[in-house]
Amino acid sequence: MNRNRKTIRSPQELLEAVPHVFGFHPTQSMVAVVMRGHLLHVTARWDLDIACEEDGLRWIDERLSDLCSSPEARVLLVGYGHRRHVQKAIGIVRQSLEVEVVDALIVDQDRWWFADEEQMSSGRSLSYGLSVPMSREDIAASIASPKGLREDDLLETLVEFLDAHDDLPAHELGKSVVGFIDRWSQKVSLDDRDYLDVAVAISEGAARDEVWKILTHESAKTSLGFWKEVLRRTPVVIRVPVLAVTGMVAWIAGEGTVMNICLKEAEALDPNYPLVVTLSMISHQGLHSSKWLEMNCIPLEKAS
Hints:
Blueprint: E1 6-7, H1 11-22, E2 29-36, E3 39-47, H2 48-51, H3 54-67, E4 73-80, H4 83-96, E5 101-108, E6 111-114, E7 124-125, H5 136-142, H6 148-164, H7 170-185, H8 192-201, H9 205-214, H10 217-233, H11 239-253, H12 256-269, H13 274-285, H14 292-295
Parallel strand pairs: 4-5
Antiparallel strand pairs: 1-3, 2-3, 2-4, 5-6, 6-7
């Protein structure tokens, strides 16, 4: 799911690369790294406890089977957390997987070990060098739904907007969304009502089609900030379509962390929403964002 390819020469370099690939430091996590030759192609992350449960193990095995279809693919596991806990979890995961795991590493704060090292080993120090963005939790918090008085104010604005809203054809609503994106990209100030206008409009499939028409990798990278602004103002009652669209834009932009945060929340709210189903398929199969050009030639929400 990650757009960056990095040449890896040692376990140390692998561990130093992982946070930059994800865009955050994994904690209490199991990470599977799929390597082909000396290139890190794909990574996938699971919460450490979920990774050891029956459903989690089955999902991991299916996901890695999809990602390791080529004969040169190799899988390395990296566990993040308290060393003893992670060592036990890695043992459970390795025994349960059908794909071959060539090695496993453990990261506990700023030290790392091979999974089969003796407990007395002090491990090796870890330095990430380049600055890494905020934690996954901070990223999720930055696009979380409004709460408290802020939510009440936005809901009041939403009701007023819906009462006064003219019934435009869905494709015209989509064109208005594209217009808001253009204004935002030109640094024109938008208010809460403008962002709520987008959130309401994007619930229409034909309106989303207008957005898909303009999306490329570059335009997705540029407009992802706009969709984050929409998400910050979107109450739960109309949130699922915005989560799904933001997740799609994040995927096309190569921002897998944002995509997966959006997908997790959307699945909790409405796992059967068509675009959420499509996004889940993309995540499950580990599709690269280059597949967007192929998918955009068919009705997107029937792609799954």
